[in-house]
Amino acid sequence: MLAPIGEGAWVADGGIVSFFGFPYPTRSVIARLGDGALWVWSPIRLAPGLRAEVDALGPVGHLVSPNRLHHLFLAEWKAAYPEARLWGPHSTILRHPELGFGPPLRDDAPPEWGPAIEQAWFRGSLYLDEIVFLHRPSRTVMVADLIQAFNECFLHAHWHWWQRPLARRGGIMVSDPGAPRDLRLSFLRRSAARAARAKVLGWDCEQVVIAHGDWQRSGGHDLLARSLDWLGR
After folding, report:
1. Which residue ranges in the chain fall short of pLDDT 70?
2. Which CATH superfamily is domain 2-93+116-231 in?
3. Would you call 105 helix, strand, or coil by DSSP?
């Protein structure tokens, strides 16, 4: 289930979850930090096969929720790896205070992650803030909901006929990737998000792993610039 995507990094595709009746694929990234601990972004369902592969890589040290929507399997992973630390923005912590998170994630990466992980905090939305991450050794950026890129094959296989036009008009297709239109409109104060975008566009990035849709193995910088252009200047 784990596929290597660069130096010390792996991607895993999970099952499909329902988001208000719309089928969404799930995807996770696992990175090995300098101390050997595994850093898990957006944990997917911990199937037995996946757990065996994760255990073969090393000890799980960090479980990371990029935004408050990516919380479904945190408790499952925490139960399997009780020594791992949980991380997320304040909005995620409010959903699951019982899990015992570390300090809320903001714009600067915690020192526990060393030089391997960089992050940028997109905020200013009435609905959703998100932490976007860079794994420096593999030059991989990870985006949860701020960029979605569905293909026609997935839509025809999983979305009802009346749902498909919403994806095409919503700006979340491979040909026109980005945040859903309603999420874009919720960013009423965009200066902080634009600063986060400038930070992301300054990263040395080759790949962009997207939680929902097709991810890109090359030309990542151009994809990020195009997909985040809706934030304006």
Report:
1. none
2. Ribonuclease Z/Hydroxyacylglutathione hydrolase-like (3.60.15.10)
3. coil
